[in-house]
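Re: beginner question about structure tokens

> Can someone show what the tokenized structure looks like for a real chain? I only ever see the sequence side.

Sure, here's an example I had lying around. Input first:
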Amino acid sequence: MNKLLSLVTAAAILMVAGCDLLTQLPGGKDDEPDKKDTGIKGVINSQSSSSLKSWTTSGKVYHITGSLDIQTDVVWGPDVEVLVDADARIEVEESGSLTIKEGVKVLLGDDAYIQVGYGTSGKFIAVGTKEKPVVFTKSSSNQSTWGHDNYAGIILDSKITGDSKLDYCVIEYASAGIYANEIPVKVTNCTIRNNKNYGIQFHSPAMPKDTSTFTGNKISNNGKYPIMISADGVSRLPGDIVFTNNTNNKIYVEGGDVVSSGTWRKQEVPYEIKGRVSIEQPSGVSITIAAGTVCELNEDAYIEVGYGDPGTLIAKGTKDDPIIFTCSVDGAFWGHDHYAGIIISNKATNNTTLQYCRIENATTGVYATGVSALNISNCEIKNNKNNGIIFYDGASPKDSASFVNNVITGNGDYPIVINASVLGKLSGTGSCSGNEKDGIFVNGDVVTDNATWKAHDVPYIVKNRINIENATGVKVTIRPGVAMQFLVDAYLEVGYGEPGTLVANGTAESPIVFSGFVEDSYWGYGVDNEDNSGGIYLSNKTTSSTSLSYCVIERASSGINVEADVSIKNCTIKDNKYYGIILNDDVPTSKIADNTFSGNGSGETLKN
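And the corresponding structure tokens:
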């Protein structure tokens, strides 16, 4: 009778506390779980007995037989074992907390899981030691997994407190290890292994608070990716994570806005990027990518810097440890289909730098627009679907020293597309050969700044008119060995409305060549309108410092049209449609000498 009375009394106490807890304790104390067959479920709150809040009998097995809501401070451990039946959910909410101490082993059945802070505040602290970690694992060797199948075994939800943490824990054999939702969490020195899907998912905007709050982790043998994280959270990952034998042994990066400055550190596995990564923020944001980092981008994924607000990308590899941007899918291309893999927009800052990078298998490697101070040096830009690099709308390197030793090869169109106005900012170093269209594509433009056009291992291919002039004067020097090939109707004009100077002095061994790009066609002003004006037009405001020597001018409408006092010597002027040289009547001829003419359709010289 006394024992029956005690059980009735205990049940009454639990009902008053608003709990649904069943404790079966044959031969034991009424409010203390038995070592083997304790049954716990329902609610633990502030009115529950102290023994339900403190599971600390070392070696004891605490048995959770149904869903359990923790709404007060509960402690497990050290060295206890918690057995959770199939389908049981452990929920920490209503300002409750669950603290799990060293040596605790939590064995969970099919579809059982732990969720913290789902609708109301909850705290979760699981802290083991290196020698005695906290272990979350399946309850039976015959069991496949535990955990919420669409999320994870441990769900750290949007109302979890900021001081929650996991340290020296093992999470294994779950549907996925950890699912963090919205709130920065601390996960350190943990082993996350053998889970069905992901190791840990940081659902945007969840991420580690900083690198120190996600250090020392080992993530291995998971069925999908070891980590999924937003692009904005990548800089919170340290470089000491150990990744082993995950099915997709890469860090899965969800595209999005990057608004926090930081460093993408070199990992022992690549970053696999999905979607658009936009580096910009009204007050400015800067992302540094460390040497040796590998970024594999999905089809249609791309990186854009400074599209609507200021942004900076600093990707500095080394000769021995380059940064690699490549496609995650063999035989496919990544990048914005109409632009490029890396888009540097007009609000990218002057600090934006690509050095010792390899950019390959994109739609186009790099597309820069409106940015005039880029540093792109010692890069390999290769095997892209279209162009290697496009400088659009006045975009350019900062100067010729900021565009050196790049190797641009294997691309489906041109290695470089650039405006004539900034052509002098190319260095002439490196290589642009081996592309489908072997030439630097130059969009005609007004050249208003002094410049030197340097020789490359491929010609310049010119579209439309290049006009060299400025109200205060401008001088363009063309180096020996330069080859310029002009599309139909393209031509070079100097001093049309304002003063301009052209110095194109080759050598006998290394002449400067002006020729047509389209086979069996002519180039030059008005060539399709039967106009004989010329391929090189030296207008009346061309200065007397203008000089052409050891140049080859061929296959133009007429070779050179001269309206000013200039020097033309030792040039080969041949195979032009009409005349070799057309001279205004008042042009002095004393500095036009020693030129060779052949094959011009209407003769050597025409005096107008």
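Each token stands for a local structural state, so reading them left to right follows the chain. Residues 71-249 form one domain.
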